[in-house]
Amino acid sequence: MSNFITASIGKKFMMSVTGLFLMMFVLVHLSLNLMLIFDDSGDLFNMAAHFMATNPAIRIMEPVLALGFIVHIIWSLIITLQNMKARPVKFAKRDQKNASSWASRNMLILGSLILVFLVVHIMNFFWKMKVSGDPLLTHVHVMQGGTEVAMENAYALVASLFKGSMCYGVLYILGSVLLGLHMTHGFWSAFQTIGFNNTVWRKRLERIATCFAVIVAVGYSIIPLYFMLKF
Amino acid sequence: MADVILKKIYVKVWRQSSPSDKGRFETYEVENVSQGSSFLEMMDILNEKLVGEGKEPIAFDHDCREGICGMCSLYINGRPHGPDTEITTCQLHMRKFSEGETITVEPWRAGAFPVIKDLIVDRDAFEKILQSGGFVSVNTGGVPDGNAIPVSYEDAEEAMDAAACIGCGACVSACKNSSAMLFVSAKVSHLAKLPQGRVEAKKRARNMVAKMDELGFGGCTNTGACEVECPKAISISNIARLNREYLLAKISE
Ligand code: HEM
Ligand code: SF4
Ligand code: FES
């Protein structure tokens, strides 16, 4: 396995594996978040958040997820910079619009914007729940299997952010769309990178990629939209 | 149908006298070009005019002029082999251009393909990649009977499709990363698909990828621009196969 890590395909393999892992996270995160719009009392979402915060398997995955992000981001910078260096003198006239998609050519730009969103997102929720705390998070009691369980009111934190500010709502919709665009290319590209592709699967994967991207972009956008429109 | 004559067109060409020269664009006028003539014939007309004026003709690569040798290159109006699909520059016709148009002609741009003169680049890097594994080692002796080793129709077809690569380098110039992945994947695939090539498949994938990296080509982002611009329509499914071959070769190392 010597020099696998430094080889072009080896580095790309790291992008693909972390990308596939992050996409799974994106789906799990979305399905939990959708609880926000199905129960205005907040109990459903609070129970889901409580489960995620206390389940040992999820606790273990938290640092793994952080590592996945860090590797994906660092590798994306290394790869993109090296790729840029491979053409020291640029073409004076370049017509690429019919040959490749905009998203595929601008994955780092999309990724970096997603990263900016990610930082804001972490400060909004994760940081307050895990580190700094917030008065909105004071405990609520939810009936769970016949007994009353005390848990943080994560719902109040999320709901107040979107009810209180249009700006955050718009920002979150923008973040969802950017992530969706990253997925239009990233989804099928990740399979191509690990060698899972051929002329038949190419069409299938591209179609699934479009579906996945739309689910991500629309799914995440619905949540701020729901609070902006309903309250 | 009467031939349409382009009364005047402008050709903006990259001129560079030597590898160390900084180089610059120069624009030339070409008059009375038939739309039925090929792009390279137009370049010939321009060069004759330049010679007549006592100027240095424009250096560009070409050989067979029928789309089979891979010698012609040229980045025309922002696209390798110009504004048409599945053709080489020598197969490009002037009917793709219109009266009064300015046509921008550049050499392939990639760190691994340095400019030698004007529009000619050094594609020796492809040769080096081939030398690192793009072959089947055979002992001398009697030639085995072709039918002795069965090959399925599908495998033979896929191998032939990959073998259609003429090593022109359009894929590298089409790629935003100057990646040689389509070329290498075609060369790895046409042998990987055949029993004779399987024997050295792992070594081949490892060595050719290592050589491609060493020579300064970029990595693959899977944008797919290469297969769109490839004159032989080599599919990027070959790149998936190369990834597969390479990863398996590395795991078993
Ligand atoms: C949840 C967030 C993210 C997910 C689900 C995700 C997913 C993916 C996937 C699946 C790929 C395709 C990998 C391949 O082609 O093999 C990819 C590529 C890429 N990602 Fe992300 N990504 C995310 C965030 C980011 C961030 C934050 C950055 C950078 C700051 C980034 C930068 C890139 C780049 C540059 C590529 C293309 C690399 C190349 O040139 O091939 N991504 N991403
Ligand atoms: S893969 Fe296509 S574009 Fe690349 S060198 Fe071969 S024939 Fe030319
Ligand atoms: S000159 Fe031979 S392919 Fe164009």
Describe the protein in words.
Chain A has a single domain, classed as 3 helical TM bundles of succinate and fumarate reductases. Helix content of chain A is 73%, strand content 4%. Chain A is built from eight helices and two strands, in the order αααααββααα. In chain A, strand 1 and strand 2 form a beta hairpin. Chain B is an alpha+beta fold. Chain B folds into two domains: 102 residues, Roll (Ubiquitin-like (UB roll)); 119 residues, Orthogonal Bundle (Fumarate Reductase Iron-sulfur Protein, Chain B, domain 2), CATH 1.10.1060. Helices cover 35% and strands 14% of the residues of chain B. Chain B has nine helices and seven strands. A five-stranded mixed beta sheet of chain B has the order 2-1-5-3-4. Chain B starts with a strand and ends with a helix. In chain B, 46% of the residues are buried. The interface between A and B is large, with 46 and 50 residues. The complex binds protoporphyrin IX containing FE, iron/sulfur cluster and FE2/S2 (inorganic) cluster. Iron/sulfur cluster (SF4) binds next to helix 4 and helix 5 of chain B. The site of iron/sulfur cluster (SF4) has 14 residues of chain B, from helix 4 and helix 5.
Helix-and-strand structural type of chain B = alpha+beta
Q: How would a textbook summarize the main sheet of chain B?
A: 5 strands, mixed
Count of alpha/pi helices of chain A: 8
The radius of gyration of chain B is 20 Å
Q: Could you state the order of secondary-structure elements of chain B as H and E?
A: EEHEEEEEHHHHHHHH
CATH superfamily of the largest domain in chain B: Alpha-helical ferredoxin
CATH topology of the largest domain in chain B: Fumarate Reductase Iron-sulfur Protein, Chain B, domain 2
Percent of residues in β-strands of chain A: under 5%
Instruction: State the oligomer.
Output: heterodimer
